[in-house]
Specification:
By secondary structure, the chain is of the alpha/beta class. It is built from 8 helices and 10 strands.
Length: about 260
């Protein structure tokens, strides 16, 4: 199985990632990917991206060296905001892609399954949300699988199968069995599924080996993945709602050793 789109990548704007959008796009091109989503952490994460970062993502190329760049976020549930997310709807509706996940030091560190589930169910019901990230992080942020998967199916929100959760050196590796359970439950229920690298360094962009092994073990076919290629991703996203800035930024090429130039 080969997947040509990565819907979960981070840049230096996340505060604890180490590559730029351009470096990520170059790595994606070399890996043969057609599309990546830029999903930097929302402001609730310590040193996460500022609100203005998300407002201004329109300046990033929509296509860079042949790779489609989807400009989005990995926001966080929030107990104090009007919409239950750490970015307001006015910002979310301008983004090409909205992912949301639970992270340390954002108000959910008690390991309270009911609290976490209620917060994520509110997130999933927001029509601007497209994907929930690494939902199987049982050790830190336990969730009710049945409730989350049922809501994801009902609202057509992607359940991510996070490759990094299965990586031996990952802090989430201890919960990899739960991530696997989420994958199986989402597929059985017919909820949308996507595999994400969760790359925090450009050489990990498009790295899906561990998650693809899980898909194979579970008998989840290629056709079940939203991120098969750029066409399948864009078809899914545009089928949910308008993406007003999708083409903002234009088509750019970066000649080897030369300056950045816009293609007209």
């Amino acid at each position: 199985m080969r997947l040509l789109a990565d819907l979960h990548t981070h840049t230096i704007a996340s505060g604890h990632a180490y590559s730029t959008v351009t470096e990520n796009a170059g790595a994606a091109r070399r890996a043969g990917l057609e599309l990546i989503a830029v999903t930097d952490h929302g402001p609730a994460v310590p040193e996460g991206a500022h609100l203005w970062h998300f407002w201004n993502l329109k300046v990033i190329p929509s296509v860079l060296d042949g790779v489609r760049i989807i400009k989005g976020c990995e926001a966080n549930p929030c107990l104090t905001s009007e919409n239950g997310i750490d970015l307001p709807d006015e910002v979310l509706e301008q983004l090409d892609f909205v992912a949301v996940g639970l992270h340390p030091l954002t108000g959910f560190d008690e390991g309270d399954r009911m609290k976490n589930t209620e917060a994520m169910l509110r997130v999933i019901s927001n029509p601007l949300v497209d994907m929930i990230t690494h939902p199987g992080n049982e050790d830190e942020f336990p969730l009710d699988i049945d409730a989350i998967v049922a809501a994801a199916k009902r609202h057509q929100v992607i359940v991510e199968i996070n490759d990094y959760s299965f990586t031996p050196t990952s802090a989430r590796n201890g919960s990899s069995a739960r991530e696997r359970e989420f994958a199986a439950a989402a597929h059985t229920a017919g909820a949308p599924i996507a595999v994400g690298s969760d790359a925090h360094y450009h050489l990990r962009v498009g790295r899906f080996d561990h998650a693809l092994g899980v898909l194979e073990d579970l008998g989840i076919p290629h056709a079940a993945c939203v991120n098969r290629d750029a066409e399948s991703v864009l078809g899914f996203l545009l089928g949910k709602r308008a993406r007003p800035r999708l083409e903002y930024g234009g088509v750019w090429t970066t000649p080897e050793g030369g300056n950045v130039e816009a293609s007209r």
